[in-house]
Structure to design on (199 residues):
């Protein structure tokens, strides 16, 4: 048996410190289900087992609330649950359940991300963002293939026109600004020329 010497709760996580030096982190919802206080005697391994056994419904609820705001990638959901201190087995079970019921889909997330972000950014910027979100190369390509080149060009021209005053119709500067937004050089240059009225 060990003894709890300190309990701190911050950002939805309870941190339990034991006399032996062990530290156990628990999602607040689970801590509230089985509260412990400084001075309580208990086995840290037994508390971890409790967290593992009771974590699933709480993690599923947390994930559902997170998904209610907007589409998320699997990686985003996993990171959110990991930050809340759910164990890996529970996180895997939750993401498997959500995917099985069609509530978590990287392909749907990628498609919506492309639709939303293509209003201001080019393919390479969007691809980079999707990689950061953990979307596979295959799902990313499928989503980006739905963005017609003419549409990407039209958006680049729109962005370029907004930049003409700031850059005083300097085609080189507009081109560079568009490239920073993820448009390829040729498309950015052509869009900059049209935006500046020189094509």
């Amino acid at each position: 048996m060990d003894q709890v010497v300190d309990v701190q709760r911050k950002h939805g996580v309870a941190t339990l410190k034991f006399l032996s030096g062990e530290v156990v982190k628990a999602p607040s919802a689970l801590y509230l289900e089985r509260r412990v206080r400084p001075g309580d005697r208990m086995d840290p391994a037994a508390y971890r087992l409790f967290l593992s056994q009771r974590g699933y419904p709480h993690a599923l609820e947390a994930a559902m609330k997170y998904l209610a705001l907007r589409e998320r990638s699997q990686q985003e959901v996993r990171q959110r649950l990991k930050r809340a201190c759910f164990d890996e087995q529970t996180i895997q079970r939750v993401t498997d359940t959500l995917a099985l019921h069609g509530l978590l889909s990287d392909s749907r997330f990628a498609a919506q991300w492309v639709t939303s972000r293509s209003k201001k950014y080019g393919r390479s910027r969007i691809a980079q963002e999707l990689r950061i979100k953990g979307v596979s190369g295959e799902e990313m390509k499928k989503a980006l293939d739905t963005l017609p080149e003419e549409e990407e060009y039209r958006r680049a021209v729109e962005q370029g026109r907004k930049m003409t005053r700031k850059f005083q119709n300097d085609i080189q500067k507009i081109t560079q600004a568009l490239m920073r937004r993820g448009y390829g050089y040729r498309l950015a240059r052509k869009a900059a020329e049209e935006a500046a009225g020189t094509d």
Observations:
- Residues 8 and 15 are 5 Å apart (CA to CA).
- The mean pLDDT is 94.
